Amino acid sequence: MPTSGLDAFFSAVEGPTTPMLVTAVAVLDPPPGGSVAAASVQRELGERAGRLPALARRLSGGPLGLEAPHWRPVDQLDLAYHLRRAALPSPGGLPEVADLAGELLSHPLDLSQPPWRLWVVEGLAGGGLVLVAQAHHALVDGVAGLGTFAQLLVPGPPASRRGTAAAAPLAPRSSGSDPGQGDAGRAPGVLAALEALPWFLGWSGSTEEAARRSGPFRCPRAPWNGTVSARRVVAFAHLPLAAFQAARATGATVNDVLLTTVGLALRRWLPPEATGPGSRSLSALVPVSLRPSPPAGGPLDDEPLTGNAVGCAFVPLGTDQPDPARALAAVQAATSAAVPEARALGSAFEALAALARPVLTRPLVGVAAALRLFDRLPPLANLVVSFLSLPVEGLPVLGGRLRALYPLGPVPEGLGLNVTALRTQTGLFLGISGCAERAPWVRSLADALPEALDELSRALRGW
């Protein structure tokens, strides 16, 4: 089966320093008075993975790398490769989990195998387990990856029980038009790609109009932007939804508030001249899902979503606004324009991505990295900020109970930083990943986010 344009693109742009990994870190508490056995969890996960055909296929390149790769089924999964065990050092807290996740994010997957891997990690304080699931971005985007992981944690009911009350949903939510599951067979044309090219290069409309609109390559360079190393650092944070109340009273969405909060927190790593009058705002690349929202109360599919169905919005974070309330207003205005534009350009963006071929793209990216061109080229954006939604807290999973689920996204060349948020019933779980050379302070950023959200809330209340 041929890959889609975006699937092929994420395969083509991977390099030794840029593993294109979609990752989820699940923290499982043991049942009261009990324990969760790593061996039995690993065995159960292996049985469940063997029932998902999407996890039993690998990428196969075309002749000389001039054609997009195809998905080829494998006869049998090598579970010794895909399912692994690890242990945390004492005291087995979140910092140790973050250290392990950073190490795992620093190494690409073996693309001669189906491109996913799952670690069962012992040594968590309190006797629980940690699961670290990784998949290549060519196989899944954030929504599909989270849905596949959910299938492994809580497998769906048999087809004969679909639509019954027993078939409770556990599927990530997204929004947008339906690009079609299993859309990998599409072949976007060159003409469609040309539709996106002027926008991508900043040529849309007059110079004055283009300056007002959000888009790629229209942001200042931040200290963490540039050529990235292979080593990743990771941090986790949690923001309760109650802390968003004051900001949401203005009509802002949770996503608007988080983007503003990230901008406020990042100001601490900017020189004064980058936040004063006349400065340009930092900009986030925000993936926009083009998948439909699952019906409320709908059952899980036997086969989870796969592939990529995303557009890209570029949202200024309001870092040029000294007043947090004005920064939120600027973000609201930007997202209201950028997100619909990203959805409208979705198919054209995929067509543009489909033009990338591994035989050409990988050497070009490699040469650019070796020459450190990303230290001098204008940055595409200053960081990636992604959003997902899934009710997870307290969910019974594999003999334990799910305490937290932290999503982590890839760190693209030239950007150096990724913040991915998972919205649950009561709060946001945040996974922050960065280049260890460009952004070694990601744990300080995680600590700064609650303070920045409080700063925004106080400004909106007039305190």
From TrEMBL:
It catalyses: an acyl-CoA + a 1,2-diacyl-sn-glycerol = a triacyl-sn-glycerol + CoA. SUPFAM superfamilies: CoA-dependent acyltransferases (SSF52777). Residues 307-456 form the O-acyltransferase WSD1 C-terminal domain. The keyword Acyltransferase applies. Residues 4-257 form the O-acyltransferase WSD1-like N-terminal domain. PANTHER family: O-ACYLTRANSFERASE (WSD1-LIKE) FAMILY PROTEIN (PTHR31650), WAX ESTER SYNTHASE_DIACYLGLYCEROL ACYLTRANSFERASE 4-RELATED (PTHR31650:SF1). This is Diacylglycerol O-acyltransferase. It comes from Aciditerrimonas ferrireducens.
